[in-house]
Design a protein that fits this description.
Helix 19 packs across helix 20 and helix 20 (1338-1347) runs antiparallel to helix 21. The longest helix is centred in the middle third of the chain and has 40 residues, at 862-901. Strands 22, 23, 24, 25, 26, 27, 28, 29 and 30 form a nine-stranded mixed sheet that branches. The chain has an eight-stranded mixed sheet with strand order 11-13-16-15-14-17-18-12, with no helix packed on it. The chain is α+β, with helices and mostly antiparallel strands and 1488 residues long. It contains 28 helices and 78 strands.
Length: 1488
């Protein structure tokens, strides 16, 4: 270190303190009372206080966090009086005292801390500097050495709780002069004056009322602190423990007299007391355990069940009951039930339980130990220190064979009764004596041994296999079976250690000849010649096999070992013992199967290089030139980044060498002796990606400072060098912490406003600048764009409205700071204004045309003029009224709809139900959802066949040939094609990569066939005429579910709800399905219906006490329609399948004074005019506004009749069934109203409109044709109201990135495939390419979903809603078409209705297809990864065995044709697929 001039020896410094973890940054020192005190500042902002004693001893006695963060700068300084130290960091200057004596609460802590500033101020009971302690210069008032601490003793140091005001003498050492006086305090029980005599103080124990109640449950004493309190300071300055004990808690003599306190047992009172004088008899006092009344240890007490027998017990000191005391009894607790038996005391050392029989339930136990207690005088128990028990036993329990019976304990006296073939007591077996077998008797050998189990069933010929034979009557002694076991005609030597008499033999196999292959196991019991009745022969065979090995995987591993190696071969599960050697080292065996075994390598003794691998099974040596290479251990050279957060799970990139030889690399951290691990993924030989392990800091003690783990490294098999990395500075920063969004947890926002999540530690303060972490914030299920700073996350909220939960994720943390409520203002859109204008213009045009017609007609004649004048006046008023209503409705309805639909939950169907509805429409419980149903005796065969068939389906050559052959059959209908396509997709759900490959092949074939047959290219994929087209629909069904849930489902559901609400605002005819508001001309009511909106106050059917719900209904609604509206309002956000059904409920109108009327569609009050019967409406019952209604379970009585009517309910129930039928999807397209005449009376039912197809329709019921067409303008009004929702849906479907969701990969991938096919066939016509894409996705998938929203949501679709959705679907199809539609006055109304919108929709479609074309192509690798992920997510949705069984039904139908096709196909011939199919057919048709 320092070399003074002219000195050759260096002056070397010796370190007296060093610290590798927290580096030192500054040092300052001073001398206090002959101690050098050093204050060291560190890198983490702490100050360490060190006392230096001499040149070699130092003590770090305290560490203080001086600054919040950052290292302490080198300049530290003391205050002038050396009471304070000034410390600086980059951002902070702080003053800290040089001592903190006040933190120590006891004398020993204070003087044991090592801080020379601190001493104990005795009467003030505090740790302080000497100068701060009053009168510290007086003797023993200030202690500076631990030996000077006050010590206190008390005599006596325990008393009974029944002793009061006992004099106690306290002796105090090291106390100052106590002339001011002291008090004695028993915690919070009592305080009294103490009499001081030198260093002794006299006190009294508490009086009776202050005495503590010693708790009985836990122990017999309570420890109380006895304090000495100085009257000078009012503070306690010394304390000692004092015990109050309670003898009476002891309920037995032994526990009483064994107590460490002064307790005595009164034998005749059966009582424990501290005062022996209270015992009634002198001879009854017991102080020693050996004088206690007690039972002595007994041999096992055996009692057979149901046998009358006394039980005699040895004892000592048994008391003689005195006059007035009851005698002895035995108490046995059998299976929870107490049995009291009278007992006889012979003398003080013997007692006998009288003759009684006992019994216990069940045959699971051959013997049952039963608690035995001897009691006298009712409940005085005799101690039973040896815990003697009575063992009840049954000979026949668990001894079903002769061998098990004879090997029972001879003391039981059980014999095998041959006549009854059961184990029993000798006296219960009928005589004569040769009828039973007994242990060690004349007849003690069981006949008819039996073998029930042999393991293993296969072994090598070389022998050495330990064969375990289990059965019955396999001898009672080892010598009986020694040399008497042969397995497959080979001697098998029994092993004594494995022998269980009568039950099990373990023997070692000898060597077998090459000619020996298999055979039974034979066991002969007994010595000498083998007799048939003592010979057992197994039904199962033992086989000799030749185990072989042929390959090893992996073939290399680290030289330190730990690699799990798999060795492949055949018959590797034979034999009993496996040993694997790598040259001369064992490889620890793990597990095995017939085709493989695994072991774990040890560290190589010979360094790097190849070693030979050998396997031995028992005595068979398996030779093969297998080699394993020990290569250099992996090393870790770099970890990036070198930080994480407490909860871990942040990405860490690791660089090193030979990383690819490790199968399961793990990253580890150890902190406070707790190790945590996390997974790594090897990317290449030199790099891997890990997720940082968490640091096991309990949540309650999370510090704000960064922490370093005690150990940090990797588990790479058994490589020790990387277990703990010394060259890394890996550090953990505190977890990010989030604050709630608002005190209530709900944050109100406008659309587009950013969401700000506040908190701290969002950016770890790493040495290279703030560390970046991957944050994800979900609003509902949608992620948002983030901007991160240290204390807040700025989240660009996605385009959403309503209430959504906010969820933040980072590393291993997931936290919800609350809910956002996004409310939107919905002003009238420009589209709506255009719609209003268009509706007005059309109405005006209609009026003008009518007026012109009127002018022309008026010239013809005066008579016609007058008639037309009247008609026109009428018409004008109706048209004006209609226009005014339509305009007003259009203005108000849009706002009402948008506000009503906000915030409603969307009842998505789960993945399985959704796919089943698309794949197999109309089939509720399809077999693919159930387990395979086959008769039990055929199950194994059928399952084998189906497994083989599954392998064929997973063979592309077979599957393509199978589909092509089926399609070529004339009897293979369109329905069959769809069914086969759906079944194949259910089987291939778990292998979507393969399914996609097959689909591409089939589509390619379909395009080739389409072009070869000279069909117009645009017809491709137009109709479902092939398996490929239905498979394509199903493929999109599987892969677009997520897109439907996250993106397209919301606008589709909004459209459905909007249509439903808009239709229900006006009258709907419950029979014909026609409505005032409709998009479909066919379903429009073409006449004026006067109606009024009523508000009905409805009582919740499941909770009568909840507030009434207001429901809007029309006075022209039928009772069934009102019930549906009420259910819709009550169960607004409940899926349809979970609601009550209207048909199961009655509508009850609750009027004043407790009157209740049941309203029904048909009852005795229903009006009948001629042969027309009109359904009852609210107006029929004259229900007023704000009436109170309740839905009650269906009544059993018939209609509401004034008197006891006997009218049956057939017509009502028939009508309700008819309503259900009209709502079912199958009948929706029927344009003729459903009017079913009542079969009993021939009466036709109607609601709002009579069926105009009946000839008896009166003129004017529906008005003339000219007038009825006026009502078509209502289509425009409805269209205008729904325009926003239709636009929203189309915009979502036809945009590549909408609402934060990216375009599904499946769409891009399939469109690129169609473009490739077009290029391949030189089709460059953009219209053809456009049409292919439209037929592929919109026509095949979207149209189906739009027309059938019940495939996606749990809803009910009425006929009017279906008609409107059909119009929207037609518009959707027209938008995707490239051909121009010329429209005129004769065009269908639904085409005219959206004529203006279709050109702009077409431009959306073209832009959508163009945007998809411009996106970068998806690599097969990315697509396969995506498909594999989808397969994994929905792996077990369908029962593949049932699906295969359904597909196989088509094989059964066309077996010959399929086999023939396979034999003609070259690729199929090479793979012998026809033979394999015939194998499947053989399995499936085999009857046993």
């Amino acid at each position: 270190m320092n070399a003074p001039l002219g000195v050759s020896e260096m002056v070397r410094g010796r370190p007296i303190f060093s610290d590798a973890n927290d580096k030192m940054t500054s040092v300052v020192a001073y001398v206090y009372k002959n101690h050098s005190l050093v204050f060291v500042g560190t890198k983490s902002g702490r100050v360490k206080k060190i006392r230096v004693d001499g040149s070699s001893r130092s003590l770090q006695y305290e560490t203080v966090q001086a600054v919040e963060s950052g290292p302490i700068l080198r300049d530290m300084a003391f205050s002038a009086d050396h009471h304070y130290l000034y410390v600086m960091s980059e951002t902070q200057l702080s003053r800290m005292p040089v001592e903190a004596c006040g933190q120590y609460s006891t004398c020993s802590e204070c003087l044991g801390s090592g801080d020379p500033h601190c001493g104990w101020c005795v009467l003030h009971n505090t740790c302080t500097r000497k100068e701060k302690c009053e009168r510290s210069m007086e003797p023993r008032r200030f202690a500076s050495d631990i030996k000077q601490c006050v010590r206190l003793t008390v005599h006596p140091n325990n008393i009974s709780v029944s002793q009061f005001s006992v004099t106690l003498v306290l002796e105090a050492h090291n106390v100052p002069e106590l002339s001011a006086g002291v008090n004695c305090t028993f915690e919070d029980l009592a305080e009294m004056n103490g009499l001081v005599e030198g260093n002794r103080i006299k006190c009294f124990s508490p009086a009776e009322k202050e005495m503590p109640r010693v708790v009985v449950d836990k122990s017999d004493h309570q420890i109380v602190q006895l304090y000495l309190k100085s009257k000078e300071t009012g503070l306690a300055f010394a304390n000692t423990s004092f015990v109050f004990y309670n003898c009476s808690v002891h309920k037995s003599c032994l526990s009483c007299v064994s107590s460490p306190y002064q307790c005595h047992w009164c034998k005749y009172r059966h009582d424990c007391t501290h005062d022996p004088r209270t015992c009634s008899f002198q001879e009854g006092r017991v102080k020693k355990p050996e004088e206690c009344p007690q039972l002595l240890p007994a041999e096992r007490i055996l009692v057979p069940v149901n046998v009358v027998k006394p039980i005699t017990l040895r004892a000592k000191n048994l008391p003689q009951p005195q006059s007035g005391q009851r005698g002895y009894e035995c108490l046995l607790t059998i299976q929870g039930n107490e049995h009291r038996v009278p007992a006889l005391r012979f003398n003080s050392s013997s007692v006998q339980c009288q003759n009684t029989s006992y019994f216990y339930d069940g045959m699971e136990m051959s013997s049952l130990p039963v608690e035995l207690t001897v009691i006298w005088n009712g409940d005085f128990s005799i101690d039973n220190p040896a815990h003697n028990k009575v063992h009840l036993y049954k000979c026949d329990a668990q001894r079903g064979s002769c061998g098990l019976c004879l090997k029972a304990d001879p003391l039981f006296g059980c014999v095998w009764c041959k006549g009854e073939n059961r184990c029993t007591l000798k006296q219960h077996c009928p005589h004569p004596e040769n009828q039973w077998l007994e242990h060690n008797g004349i007849n003690s050998k069981c006949t008819h041994p039996r073998i029930t189990q042999i393991t293993p069933l296969r072994g090598p010929r070389e022998g050495g296999t330990l064969v375990t034979i289990r059965g019955d009557n396999l001898g009672l002694e080892f010598r009986e079976i020694q040399g008497n076991v042969r397995v497959a005609e080979v001697e098998c030597t029994p092993i004594r250690e494995g022998y269980i008499p009568a039950e099990q033999i373990v023997c070692e196999m000898g060597r077998a000849e090459k000619s020996q292959y298999t055979g039974n196991v034979k066991v002969c019991v007994g010595m000498g010649a083998c007799r048939p009745e003592f010979t057992a022969k197994s039904s199962k065979y033992y086989y000799f096999v030749i185990p072989r090995i042929h390959s090893i995987k992996p073939s290399r591993g680290p030289v330190s070992g730990g690699t799990v190696v798999s060795i492949m071969g055949s018959h590797l599960d034979a034999g009993s013992n496996v040993s694997i050697m790598f040259k001369d080292q064992p490889c620890t065996f793990l597990k095995r199967d017939g085709l493989w075994l695994t072991c774990r390598t040890h560290a190589s003794l010979h360094g790097y290089g190849n070693v030979s691998v050998s396997v031995s099974i028992d005595k068979a040596q398996l030779q093969r030139d297998l080699r394993f290479e020990y290569v250099e251990d992996p090393t870790i050279t770099k970890i990036e980044p070198e930080w994480s957060i407490y909860s871990g799970n942040t990405p860490v990139t690791v660089t090193g060498t030979n990383l690819d030889i490790i199968q399961t690399p793990l990253i580890r951290a150890k902190y406070n002796n707790h190790e945590t691990l996390n997974l790594c993924q090897v990317l290449s030989r030199t790099s891997m990606e890990c997720q940082a392990p968490e640091l096991s800091i309990s949540l309650a003690h999370q510090q704000e400072a960064p922490e370093r783990p005690d150990e940090f490294g990797f588990r790479l098999d058994d490589v020790q060098a990387v277990m703990v990395l010394n060259n890394t500075n890996f550090i953990y920063y505190p977890n990010p912490e989030f604050e709630p969004l608002s005190p209530s947890g709900v944050l109100e926002l406008k659309p587009g406003s950013p969401i700000i999540l506040k908190g701290r530690n969002f950016l770890p303060p790493t040495s290279t600048g703030n560390g970046k972490m991957n944050y994800t914030v979900l609003i509902g299920e949608k992620p948002c764009m983030l901007t991160v700073s240290d204390s807040q996350l700025l989240c660009e909220s996605p385009n959403l409205t309503g209430r959504h939960k906010v969820l933040a994720r980072v590393g291993g943390i997931e936290f919800s700071p609350g809910v956002v409520h996004i409310t939107s203002d919905s002003p009238l859109s420009s589209t709506a204004i255009i719609g209003i204008a268009a509706a007005g213009a059309l109405l005006l045009l209609a009026i003008v045309m009518v007026l012109i017609a009127y002018k022309r007609k008026s010239r013809e004649s005066d008579l016609t003029l007058k008639r037309l004048q009247m008609q026109m006046d009428n018409l004008e008023s109706r048209v004006a009224l209609e226009c005014k209503e339509a305009f007003a409705e259009l203005q108000t309805d849009i706002h009402e709809l948008t506000s009503d639909l906000d915030g409603a939950g969307i009842p998505f169907l789960d993945y399985r139900t959704y796919t089943m509805r698309v794949l197999f429409p109309g089939i509720e419980e399809h077999p693919v959802l159930r387990d395979l149903e086959v008769p039990g005796y055929r199950q194994e065969q059928v399952e084998k066949g189906l497994k083989l068939f599954g392998q064929l389906i997973n063979n592309k050559v077979y599957l393509l040939c199978f589909i092509r052959t089926l399609e070529a059959q004339r009897g293979f209908s369109m329905r069959d094609r769809g069914n086969v396509a759906s079944l194949i997709m259910t089987v291939l759900q778990s292998k979507l990569e393969y399914a996609t490959d097959v689909l591409k092949h089939l589509l390619s074939d379909l395009i080739d066939r389409n072009l070869e047959s000279k069909n117009h290219p645009k017809l491709l994929l137009r109709r479902t005429e092939s398996v490929a087209e239905k498979m394509l629909t199903n493929w999109f069904t599987f892969l677009l579910y997520k897109f439907l849930k996250e993106c397209a489902g919301e606008p589709l559901f909004s459209l459905f709800c909007a249509i439903k609400q808009q239709m229900e605002k006006g009258p709907i005819d419950s029979i014909t399905g026609e409505a005032r508001y409709s998009l479909s001309e066919d379903k429009l009511i073409r006449q004026q219906i006067d109606y009024k909106t009523l508000v009905v106050n409805c009582i919740h059917p499941e909770n009568e006490k909840s507030p009434e719900i207001q429901v809007k209904a029309l006075n022209c609604d039928t009772i069934s329609q009102v019930k549906e509206k009420i259910l819709d309002a009550i169960y607004k956000n409940v899926p349809h399948s979970h609601r009550l059904k209207a048909s199961d409920m009655d509508l009850e109108w609750r009027q004043g004074r407790g009157q209740r009327v049941i309203l029904q569609d048909e009852d005795v009050t229903t009006k009948i005019e001629g042969d027309w019967k009109r359904l009852n409406m609210l107006a029929h019952y004259q229900v007023p506004d704000n009436a109170v209604m309740a839905l009650v379970p269906k009544q059993v009585t018939a209609y509401n009749s004034v008197n006891n009517s006997t009218v049956s309910r057939t017509s009502a129930s028939k009508y309700e069934n008819m309503i259900k039928y009209t709502g079912s999807p199958d009948s929706l397209r029927s344009r003729t109203p459903m009017i079913t005449p009542d079969l009993e009376s021939g009466v036709k039912v109607w609601h709002l409109v009579k069926n105009h197809e009946h000839g008896d329709q009166k003129e004017g019921d529906r008005g003339s044709k000219m007038v009825s067409e006026i009502y078509l303008t209502r289509l425009l009004a409805t269209k205008g109201t729904l325009q926003k929702f239709v636009d929203d849906l189309f915009e979502t479907i036809f945009s590549t990135a909408h609402r934060g969701s990216a375009l599904p990969l499946a769409i891009k991938y399939m469109f690129d495939f169609l473009d490739e096919q077009a290029d391949k066939h030189n089709i460059h016509d953009p219209h053809v390419r456009h049409t292919w894409k439209s037929n592929c996705l919109p026509l095949r998938f979207w149209v189906n979903v739009i027309k059938n929203p019940q495939f996606v949501f749990d809803i009910h679709k009425s006929s009017i809603t279906d008609a409107c959705l059909s119009v929207v679907a037609q518009t959707f199809m027209d938008s995707c078409s490239t051909s121009e539609h010329r429209l005129g006055k004769d065009s269908p109304s639904n085409k005219l209705l959206y004529a203006k919108d279709i050109p702009s929709y077409k431009s959306w479609v073209e832009r959508y297809y163009s945007d998809i074309g411009k996106m970068p192509a998806i690599s097969d690798q990315d697509m396969n990864a995506y498909l594999a992920e989808q397969s994994r997510m929905h792996m077990s949705e369908f029962n593949s065995m049932s699906s295969l069984s359904e597909i196989y039904s088509y094989v059964g139908k066309y077996t010959e044709e399929i086999v023939c096709a396979l034999e003609q196909d070259d690729a199929a011939r090479k793979q012998r697929l026809a033979f394999k199919l015939e194998q499947v057919v053989a399995f499936m048709t085999l009857e046993s």
